[in-house]
Amino acid sequence: MGTKYKGQKKEVSALDTYIKLIRATDTIKSKVIKSLSKFRLTENQFNCLDAVFYLGPLTQKELGEKLFRSGGNITFVVDNLEKNRLVKRIRDENDRRKFLVHLTQKGEKLYKKVFPYQLKFLVEELKSITEKDKKELQRICKKIGLKN
User: Fold this and answer.
1) Where are the domains of the chain?
2) Residue 29 backbone phi and psi in degrees, to 5
3) How far is residue 91 from each of residues 88, 94, 99, 100, measured CA to CA in Å?
4) What is the DSSP string of 68-122?
5) Distance between CA 131 and CA 137 in Å, rounded?
6) Which helix (DSSP H) or strand (DSSP E) does residue 59 occupy?
7) Angle, helix 43-55 to helix 71-83, in steps of 10 degrees
8) Model confidence over 60-115: pLDDT tens digits?
9) Do residues 120 and 94 touch, judged by C-beta distance below 8 A?
10) Alpha-carbon dihedral of residues 25, 47, 114, 130, nearest 10 degrees?
11) How far is CA 1 from each of CA 7, 38, 86, 125, rounded to the nearest angstrom?
């Protein structure tokens, strides 16, 4: 479903594109949230684990920047991950004002269990799109993301 707005062609096109992009994102996102709930993880928690797993220890500020989340949101997410012993904050040896978020052994083990499940889930969700279309969608999304 597109917009009901009756304006200039470029305005209608922009609104229709936005609506379709958001609906597609929200559809997949709601399924990801449901899928992760089986592991007692939120999407933000999984994304934090993913970032630290692949990038290594990060400050909360760096995590927030990587995941496009506010400082308050990242603090909340890391607090909950730490409460569940999935991450730990360790003072940075080079700058004692900073704490780095590290995966614990339990966090790494959980991540390694969840990631293949999530990957299989995403492959299944996107199987209706050809590889050529996926590449085109990636190109378009990158173009939109880099504009700002």
Assistant:
1) 1-37, 38-147
2) -60, -45
3) 10, 9, 4, 6
4) T--HHHHHHHHHHHHHTTSEEEEE-SS-TT-EEEEE-HHHHHHHHHHHHHHHHHH
5) 10
6) strand 58-59
7) 90
8) 999 999 998 888 899 999 999 999 999 999 998 888 888 999 999 999 999 999 99
9) no
10) 40
11) 17, 31, 41, 20
Single-letter amino acid code for the residue at 18: Y
Topology of 38-147 in CATH?
Answer: Arc Repressor Mutant, subunit A (1.10.10)
pTM listed for this prediction: 0.85
- State the amino acid at position 134 in one-letter form: K
Number of H helices, E strands in the chain: 6, 3
Dist. CA 127–CA 141, nearest whole Å: 18
Tell me what pLDDT residue 6 has: 76
Q: Which helix (H) or strand (E) holds 58?
A: strand 58-59
Distance of alpha carbon 141 from alpha carbon 43, whole angstroms:
20
